[in-house]
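Retro notes - structure team

What went well: the batch runner handled both jobs without manual restarts.
What didn't: labels got mixed up in the shared folder, which is why I'm recording both outputs here explicitly, each with its sequence directly above its C-alpha cells.

Job 1
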Amino acid sequence: MASSSSSIFSGAKFSPILAPFNTGDSRRSRCLIKENKVRFNPTSSRLSSNRVRVEAQSLIPYNGLWAQQTTNRGRLKRNIVLGQQRAIFRKEATGISLSQGRSFCLTCKRTQHGIRRSLPSAFVDRTSFSLSRSPFTLSLRKHSQILNATVGPEEPHAAGTAWPDDIVAERQDVDLLPPEIDSAELEAFLGYELPSHPKLHRGQLKNGLRYLILPNKVPPNRFEAHMEVHVGSIDEEDDEQGIAHMIEHVAFLGSKKREKLLGTGARSNAYTDFHHTVFHIHSPTHTKDSEDDLFPSVLDALNEIAFHPKFLSSRVEKERRAILSELQMMNTIEYRVDCQLLQHLHSENKLGRRFPIGLEEQIKKWDVDKIRKFHERWYFPANATLYIVGDIDNIPRIVHNIEAVFGKTGLDNESTPTSPSPGAFGAMANFLVPKLPAGLGGSFSNERTNLADQSKIIKRERHAIRPPVEHDWSLPGASVDLKPPQIFKHELLQNFAINMFCKIPVNKVQTFGDLRNVLMKRIFLSALHFRINTRYKSSNPPFTSVELDHSDSGREGCTVTTLTVTAEPKNWQSAVKVAVQEVRRLKEFGVTRGELTRYMDALLKDSEHLAAMIDNVSSVDNLDFIMESDALGHTVMDQTQGHETLVAVAGTVTLEEVNTVGAKVLEFISDFGRPTAPLPAAIVACVPTKVHVDGVGESDFNITPGEILDSVKLGLLAPIEAEPELEVPKELISKFQLEELTLQRNPRFVSFPGSGVTKLHDNETGITQLRLSNGIPVNYKISTTESRAGVMRLIVGGGRAAETSDSKGAVVVGVRTLSEGGRVGDFSREQVELFCVNHLINCSLESTEEFIAMEFRFTLRDNGMQAAFQLLHMVLERSVWLEDAFDRARQLYLSYFRSIPKSLERATAHKLMTAMLNGDKRFVEPTPKSLQNLNLESVKDAVMSHFVGDNMEVSIVGDFSEEEIEHCILDYLGTVKASHDYAKLPGSEPIVFRQPTAGLQFQQVFLKDTDERACAYIAGPAPNRWGFTVDGDDLFESVSKLSVANDGLLKSEEQLLDGRDMELQRKLRSHPLFFGIAMGLLAEIINSRLFTTVRDSLGLTYDVSFELNLFDRLNLGWYVISVTSTPGKVYKAVDACKSVLRGLHSNQIAPRELDRAKRTLLMRHEAELKSNAYWLNLLAHLQASSVPRKELSCIKELTSLYEAASIEDIYVAYNQLKVDEDYLYSCIGIAGAQAGEDITALSEEEEIEDAFSGVVPVGRGSSMTTRPTT
C-alpha cells in the first residue's frame, strides 16, 4: 500500500537483510500503475491514482498482514530502492474492502509492488501520489520481508540476489570486530554455509517434477499451491513473441477443473515473465460445512492447467481478443519508458527485445497448432516446480497426493516432441537439469527416487538447449567504449528523468561472508539515501527525487545499480550535478561511525522483530520468498536462523570494510571518466518534447548527449567535504517538560455522558474506549498477533470538503507543507528524522475530502511507542510551518495540474468528475489560480483549525499492556492543550450533483499520441455508508421499517426463511451498517457480472471494474465503472457496462452469486483479523462526533451481518444507486495519432487531478511481466 510523496519523511525502505534480496525488477518499474485502471476512492474524489500515497512502513518486519493482496508472486520485483512506491489506500466500510476480489493474470499485471518497508521516518504526506523528493523508498515484494534464503535448484537463466538496501537504525552498543579475533578464524567463519530452513521439504517425482512443501499456520485452514513452469518469453523464437503469455491465458481460463473450485472459496491466478509461467491457487484446506479435502482437487486443477490444457479454438480466439486489449491497455507512457530502459540496458541480449506481452502482429496470426506445439516443447513435469505452503499437518499425505495426481504425467502415453536443434545456440548440456542439494532439512528419503536410477525413468528432462542470456558487464577493464547517453523524447512526458545503469554478475548469498557483504552495502547506501534528502530539504533542491537502487534481478540474471534523478526540465543540469556530487562525497569520505552504529542497529532490531513474528508470516509471503530464492540460488532460512546469522556477522563488521565494500558499488558514478572505472551499462534520459515556461507558455525542450555528459562532469568537479556527525535527540519531550505539562493541564480520563464510567471495555473484541479531559476520544485494542509492534492513527474531521471558495486547495497544500517542513519544536528536520530511525517509527500524513489523518507504525522495543506518542504530541502542540516548505508544496501541486493533459486516464476522469459534481474544485487538483491565492498562514489555518476537541480521534492497536498504553495516552495526549471552541471549526459548503438538465451526461476526451489506447469511466450518485444522501434523505429510517419477505431467496437450496433467519434479516435492516454491508456485497456481484459479460463473453475489454465510494462524514457517495479498451471497441464496452449495471432487475441475482460474494468478503475479513492495521481501520470513527452511527456493533457483528444479508437486501441497496440515463455520467478517453481533439487546451479553471503526475516514470519492470490473466 504505498506511494510516495515528495517528503523526505517517506524514508528509506527496508527489509530483513536476507530478504531474498529483492530483485531489481521492482525498483525499475516503480512508477507504473498496478493495473492500468484509475480507481475512484471513497476517501478522495480523485481517482486512486491520485490517492496513491506514500506508505511509510516501519522497519517492523512485514508479517503478511499489513499489506494488500499479493500479486505477481514469485518473480516479482524486489530491491533496494531509494525512491517511493505507490499503492492505493482505499477507505472501506469498517475496514472491509469493497473491491471485487477477482483473480487476475499477473502476467499482465505490470509492476506489482508488494509490501514495502521503510526506514522509519517522520511525516510522509500520503495525500498525493508519488512525486517524491525522498530517495528513501525501498520497494520490496512482500516475500522479501521474510528472513530466509534457499539452496535450491539452479536456474542459470534466472539468477539474482535481491537485497533491499535500506535497513537502518541506531544501536549504541554495536559490537564491531574485536581485536582478539584472528584473521584466519574470521575467514574460516565467513566461509561457513548458511543454515537451511528446517521445515522446508523438497522432493522429486519419477517424471522429474520437483516439489517443495512448507507447513505454515497463517492463515489457518488455507494453503497456497503454485505451479511454476520454467518457460517464459526468453524461450520464444522470433515468430513466437508473446506465445508463452497466450498459453498462460488459454490454459488457465480454459480449465474446467479450476472453474469447479470457484464455489469453494478458492482464488486463482497466473502470470508470465521472461523465464517463468506461474499458475497459482489459494484455497481452503476443506470444503465449506464438510471435511472434504481440497488438496487433491487443487492439484488436479493445476495438473490440467499446466500439462493437459484443451486448446479449443473458441477459447484461443477469446483470449486473443483479451490479450490484444490488454496490450493496448498496458501501452501507457510508463510502459513505453520501461521498454526503452530495458532495450538500452540489455541491448546486447534478448532481454531488451522479448517482452512477455508480445507483439500485436504475431498475436493475431497464431493458430491452435502453433500454440500447441510450443506447449508440447516446454510444458512437462521435469520442466516445472510445484510449491505448496499452508496449514499442513500431514506432509506424507500431501506427498502422496502429489504423486497420485502428477505421477503419471509425462511417463505414459505421451509423445516426446523434438527439441530445437542444438545448432541454433550451441549445446548446453544439463543447462536446466535439476540439481537437488543433498541433506536438505525435511526431505523424505523414502519418498524420493534415487537420482542415479531416475535418469532411467524420466522420459523427458528439462531442456538442455536454451538461448543463453549474455551480458556486457560493467566491470573495470571489461569495456573501453562508453555508450553515448540515449534520449527518449515523448510529448506525454512531463518531467526530466535520467537513469545511469551499472550491470554486474549476481553473487548468491549462501555463506556468512555473502550475508556480511550485503549487510555492509546496505549500511553504506542507507547513509546516502538519508544524506541526499536531508542535505537539500532545508532549501529548495533542484531535483524532484534522487534514487539509488542496488539490487539483484532474478528476471534479468544480473545485479543492477541504478542512479535515477528526476527534476523539473528547467533544473535538470543542477539536479544531475547534485546527485553525482553526493555520490562522490559518500564514496570519498565514507559513512561516519555514528551512521554505521545507527543503521546497523536498525537492521538488527528489524531482524529481531521479524524473528519474534516467525509464527505470524502468511503462507503467500513465505511461498513468494521461497520461489524467489529458488530462482536466485540463495539459502533459505527461517526467521530465527536469519536473525541469528545476522547478529553473528554484524559483530565482525568494521567501518573501514563498510566504506571499502560500499565504494565499489558507486565507482561507475563517482569515478566516471577514469580509465580504471567501470563503464555504465547505459545512460538513458527520458524527457518531454515541450515544457511550460512562465509567461511564455509551451516551449520546445532540447537536450543532447553531450550536455548530459557535461552535467555529470560538473558533479565530478564540484567541491566536496566530509559529512559532519549529527546530534540525535533521545527524546522530544524531557521528563522535566512532561512534569510541567502534567501540573499545568492535569490530564485525566473523564466519564462518558450518561454513564458515569471513564472506561468502556468490550471483552468480545478487546476494544477499550476512553475520553480525555481535553476532549480527545481514544480507542485502543491489545493485540499480540504482531509481536511487540503497534500502529496509531489520529483522524481529524474536516479535510478538503471544509475548504471555502476563496481557499480551494488550502487543506491539501497545508498537509503537504507540514510534511515538507518536517520540523517540530526546536528540533531540525534531520534530528526528527533520525529520532524516528533510532526508535523505528514511521509516520505519514494524509488529507482526504473528509479527514486529515496522521498514522504511526512503531515497535515497542526501546520505548518505541513512547517515542511515537512524543512525536504526535509535538505535532499537535509545536509543529513548525516554514515558508520554503510551503513553496515546495505549492510547486508540487502546480506540477500536478500541468501534467493532467498528458494523461489519458486523469484527463478522462477529471472531465467526468467535473460534470458529475457540478465543477466542485474540492474534488480535483488545485488550479494555478487557486494556488496563487494561498499563503503560508492561510494553509496553516486551514489545517490546524480542525484540531479541536472531539473533532479529533486517536486509535491504537498493538502488543502493549493496559498500563503501558494508558500511561502514554495520559502523558502525551492528555497534556495536549484543550480546545473546545467548536465555533471556530470551518463550515463546509454544500456538495451537489449536477442536475440532469445540464446535458453533460456523456463526455469525450481526445489525446494526441503515437499509439492508440482508450479508457472510459461511468459514474453516478450513491448514498454514503450510513444511508444518507446528498439530497438530505435518511434512507436508514425507511429501510429499517421494510418488512422481511419470505421469498425463499436467502438459501441456495431455496429453503424458506425460518424464524431465526427472519430475525437475523430484521436485525440487519435495523443495523446502522446495513448500507455498508449490502453495498459491499452488491459491488462483488456487479464486478463478477462485468467480468463475465464485458470481458469474457463479449471480448470488449481486458480490464473492467466496479467500485463504490461511500463516504462516512459527507452525506453522499458514488459508484464508478472503469473500463479499458481499444478506440474501436470502447463505445460498445461502455454500452455493455451500462447494460450490466442496469440489468440486475431483468437478470435477477442468483443465490449462488450472493453466496460467492459473501464468501469473498468474509474470507477477506477473517484473513485480515490478525492485522493491526486492519483493526485500526475497524476502530476508525468509533467515537467520532461527525460519524454518529458508527458503534461497537459495526465491528462485533460484522460476520453475522454479512451472513444475514438476503438477495432482497441487495436490491434495497441497488435501488439507491441512480443508474438511469439522467443521472448516469460517462466519459470516454481516446488516445492516438488520429484522435479527435487535443486535450492540451484545458483552461486553468477546468483542471484535473493525478496520482502520479509529476514524476517521470523511471522503471523498466512493467515490461518484464504480464498482467493478471483474469
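Job 2
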Amino acid sequence: MSQLTSEDELELQSLLKQLLQSINDRISNAPSTECAEEILLHLEETDKNFHNYEFVKYLRQYMETSLGAVVEEEIKSLTKGDGQHAVGSGHDTVVHSVTCKTRESTEYQQMMQALKNTMILVVESLINKFEEDQLRKEEMHREAHHSQSNSQYNDCSDSDSSFNQSYTFIRQEQLQALTENLDSSKPKEVRWEALLVLCSAPPSDVLSCESWSSLRKNLCAALTEPDLSDHVLQFFAKSFSSSPLNVTREIYTSLAKTVESSFFTLKVPLDSSGVDITRPEISRFLKQIRLMNDFQKEVTTFWIRHPEKYMEEVIESTFSLLTFQSESASSSLGFEKHLEPLHLLALLDIKATWFKKWMHGHYSRTVVLKLLEKKYKSLIVVALQECIHYKESCENYKEGSKHSVNQQKTGQRSVYTGTELEYALFVHSLSLLGMLLIYTNGRKLFPVKVHKYKDPISLTELLVILINIMYQHPRASSHSDSLSPSGLVMEVLWMLCERTECAADCLHQTPVIETLLAPVLALLSGHKTKLKCPPVTLTLVADVLARIANTNRGLDLFLHRKNIVMSHNERTFAAHIIAQFTLKLLNKELPGLSDPEVSYSLCGAFIFVCRQMYNTCEGLQVLRPYGLHKALATAWKQTRDGHATSAPGISQGVSSEHENALMWQETILDSLLNFAVTPKGLLLLQQTGAINECVEYMFSRFTKKLQVSRCEKFGYGVMVTQIAATAPGVLALNSSGFIRALVVELWSVLECGNEDVRVVRPKPTSMDPIDRSCLKSFLSLVNLLSSSQSVWELLGRQTLANKDEYTLREVPASIPDLIDRLIAVNSDAKIHSLFHFEQSHTFGLRLLSVLCCNLDTFLLLESQYNICSMLLQRQKENVAELDNGKGEIILDSLSVERNYVLVYVSVVGGPSERKLPPRSIQEGDEPFPWPMFSCLPVPQCYTVEFKDTDQISSDPQLNAFLASSEDITDKKWMEVCRSHYRRIMATTPTVLTGDVLVNLLEKAVSHLSNADCERFFPEALYKAEEKSVKSATLLSVEELGTAICFRYGRYLKLLGDESVADLTLLMKHIKVFLCSQRVKTTSRLICLQDSYPGHDWLTSTVFLVMKGNMDRALRLLLDLSSLLVSAFIWPARIHASIHVPLAVAESGIGPVYWCTAHYVEMLLKSELPLVHSAFRISGFTPSQVEYIENMIHSINNSTKGH
C-alpha cells in the first residue's frame, strides 16, 4: 500500500477545513462540548449531504485503493470449498466475515497507521494557525491542574456563540503518557491528575487510541479505589453516550467484571441493623451498578444494528454478575445472608425494567433465553427461591415493613433493613419471572430444580405459589400501593390472562383453578378460610376468574371440565361453584361478608364473573337453573325500594351510604342488562320486570359513548339489535328515548349535515344512493326494524301527520314521523320541507325496500298507509307530456327507485318467478330498458311465465306403502316412513311433489298426532258452528295476506276463481280455533291486545299445498296443532297460547326467537366462531338469520346500485 505524500497531507488539510466550515453552524449551536462531539460522531446519520463532502469522498477512495484487492480476495475465498456454506447462510454473514478478515489483514493495519499519522500532522497544522488561542488554553490548564498541559484547544465556534465551545484534540503520545500515569503503581495524585485530563478529552479520541486496551485495564483498577472511582465512572458515562456498541460493550463488560470481582471481598450481612448505602464501599458499588443499569435500559435501542456477538457479550456479562454470588451462597446454605449485586440492582430498578426491555424484542429475547437455558439457569433458581422464601416467611413480617421500599418516592433514605432488601429482591424476581412466563420459550425453561424441593418446580406450582402470596397479603393494587404483593401478583396474572397460550399453559390448569376457588369452597362448606382479609382477597380472585372466563378456552374450562373437588372426592364444574357462591352473596347468607360496604364490591365482582358466562348462549344454559336473573331482580327491587322510601340524609355518612346504594343499583342493572346479549337471556330479562330500567341505563351509557365493560371490545350494537328484535324490547327502547335519539341523529346527518362548520374546500357530491355519512344510521334503522313484531309495536295504530305545512326546523322524533317525511312524500309541503329532497327521499325508499323484505311488515304498512297507492300516485304525477298528447314517466333516480319497490312488493316469488328491475340508470342509448307503470297490474315482463313441468314418475315403493297402510297407528309405521323418505331424498328427491307430498304429509301428521308419545299439546277438539265462523272478521292485514296468497296460487295454477272464498273461510276457522286457546292479558303490548299480529302464512301455505281443498287443509292443521313442531313452524299457533307458561305467553316473545334462535347462535359460535365474531362486529345478530339473506341483498342494493 502506498504511503500518503506531502501533497496528500496538504489536500487533506484543505478538505478537513472545508468540512469543518460546512458544519460550523451545527457545531456552534450545540449546547455543550459533549453534544458537539455527538454531532460529529453521528454526522453520517444526521446529515444527508455526508457522502457529498469532498473529505468523505477522499477517504472512501483511499480505502478502496488500499483495501480493494484484500476484499475481493476474501470474497473469492468464501465462495470456494468450506466457504460455500457461509455464503448460503445469508448476506449478513458474508459481510460480517469479509469485514472481520479485512480488519485483521496487514494492509488494513498499515492503512490505519498511515492515515492516523497523516491526520495527526494535519490537525497539528490546523492548530498552529490559532497559536494565540492555543497558548491561552494551555495557560488555563496549567493554572487549574498545576501541571504542564497535555491538551491543546482549537476554538471552532464563533465569538458570539451561545457558548464558548472548543474541541480537544489529543495526541497519541499524550494518550500513551496518560495510560502510563494511570498505572496502579503510580502515586494516587498522578493518577488523579491523569483522570482529570482524560475526562476533559473527547471519548472518541481516547477509545480509538492504540493503548486503549492497557488504558481500560488501568481504569478498571482505579474503579476499586474510592478517590478515583467517580472520575472513572464519569469517563465511562461519557463513553456510553457517545460511542458505538463495539466500544461500549468493552467498557460495560469490564465494569461488570470489576464489580463482580469486588463483591468477593465485600461481606455486608443482611440483618436487622440494616445496610447503610452511604457507606463509601456500598455507595461506590451502587453508582457503578446504577451506570450499568442505565446502559442496560438504553442499549436495546441500538444493539440490533450491530453483530449479535456484541449483544451476547453484554448479556452474558450481566448474567455472570447476577449469578456468581448466588452460586457461592447456594453452596453455603444455612449461613448468614450477605448483600449481593441483585439487591443493589433491585433497589435501583425494582420492577426489572431492564429485563423487560431485553425480553421485548425477538432479536435480544432469543439470546437471553438461550443463555438462561444453557449457562445461567441459576438466575431463574434465585428468582424462584426468593418467591418461595417470601411465601414461607411472609407471615412473620410486620405489616409496616412489607412495603417500605415504596417510601423512596416520598423521601430519600440511606438505611435499608435486611427485610426491605429481601422484599426488593422479591419484587425484582417476581417481575423477572412474570416476563419469562409470557413467552413460549421462557415457559420451556420450567420445571426448575430448587433446593429443599424434591421435585422441580413446574409452571403450575409457580402459579399456585403466587396465588398463595396474594392470599397472605391481599392489599388491593392501586397507584398508591403499586409494590404490594397482591398488586404485583395480579399484574402477572393479568398479563397471563391477556395471552391465549399463556393462559392455557399457566392458568387453565386444575391445581390453579382449585387454588383460586379454595376460599370460595371453604365458605360454601361453612368453614373458615385462612385468608387475612377475605373480602379483599375474594375480590381479587373474582377479577382473575372474570378474565379467564372472558376467553373461549377459559369459558369452556369453567363450563365443561370437572376440575373442582367437592366433598366425598366428587368433582364438579367451576361454573356451578361460582354461581352458588354468587347466589349466597346476593342473598346475604355468608355471615362475614354481609356488611354493605364489603358485600357491594365483592358481590359485584362475582356477578361480573357470572356475567362473562351468562352473556353467552352456552353459559346461560349452564347457569339458568340457578335463577341468577331472579336473584338480581330481587336485589335491585330491594335497593330501589329502600332508596325510594329513605329520608334524605344530612350527615356525610348517610350521603356516602346513599352513593354506595346508587352504585350498587347501577351494578345490578348493568348485570341484568347483559342477559339481553342472548335470545333466551332477553326472555329472562323481560320476565324480571326490569327491562325498561335496564334499557334506560344502557341508553344513558350509550349517549356518553361508554364501553360496555372492561372485557367487552365492542359497543352496545349487538345488544341493541337483540333487544329490538322483540316487542317488549323495542317498546323499552322507545320509552327510553333511544329511538328518538337515533331518528334525530339520522335527520341531522341527512338533512342538516355539517354546513355550520367552516368549509376549506367544497365537499364532493356523493354519487351513491345513500351517502356514506348516512350509512351508519341506515344500518341502525335496519337493525331496529328487522323484526315485524318490533315494527308492529312502533307503527301499529299510528297515523301519519300529513300536515299542510312543515317548518324547516321541524325535526321528526319517531319512526312514524320518519316515514311521513322520508317515505310517504305525497305532497308539495313535504317536498319543500326537505333541504335535500332527492337524497332524503331515496334514503326513505331504500329503507322501505328493506322493511318490505318481511311480508308482515309490508302488510302493516300497506294496510295503514296505502304505500303502493302512494307510490303509484307519485309515478303518475311524475309524467312529462309528449307532442302526441300521451304522457311518459320521467326517468330519474326517484322514479327508478319507486319502480323497483312497486315490483318488489307486488310480484311474489323467488328469482325463478319474478324479474326485479335495476335500481340505477345505465349508460348508453337505453338508460332504462324496463317499462315503468303507474297502475296495477304489474307489466308481464316482470313476471316469469309459469310452465307446467313434465309429469314425474312417482316412487312405486312409497306409493305402495302409502296405499297399503290402513292402520297408521302402528308404532313401526313412522320408522318405515322415515326410511322411505331418507332413501328418496338421497336418490330421487324430485318425486316428492304434488299428490305424493300431500299424502305423505297427511298420513305422517295424522300418525304423530294420534301417538301419545308424540303429542305435546292437547288434542284439538274443534267443532265450530258455521254461523259463528262466517261471522268472524279478518283484520285488514289478514285480508291483504289472503289476497296475496290467492294471487300467488293463481300464478302457480293451483287455485281457481272460487278458491278465494275457501281460503277466507279457512282463515276464519283457524282464527276462531286459535283465539280459543289464547290467554287473556292486560299487557300494553299491541301484539297481545288483538289476535296474532300479521298474516297466518302457514295456513295459507297448507291451503296451496292442498290445491285449495279447505277440508283437507283444516284437518291437517288441526292435527298439526297438537305436535311440538307447530310451536316453531306455526307462529300464529303458539302466539299468547295457554299451553305455555303465563309469563312466557305474556312476554310477547315467541319460541322461534328465545329457543330456536338461541340454539342457532350457540351452534354458530361453536362451529363457526369467525362467522359469529363477524356478526358481533357488524352489530347484527344470528337471531336475524331467518331473513338475513333478504336483508343483506337489500343492504347491498341500498349502498350501491346494481
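One thing worth noting from job 2: The longest strand covers residues 562-565.
We'll revisit the folder naming next retro.
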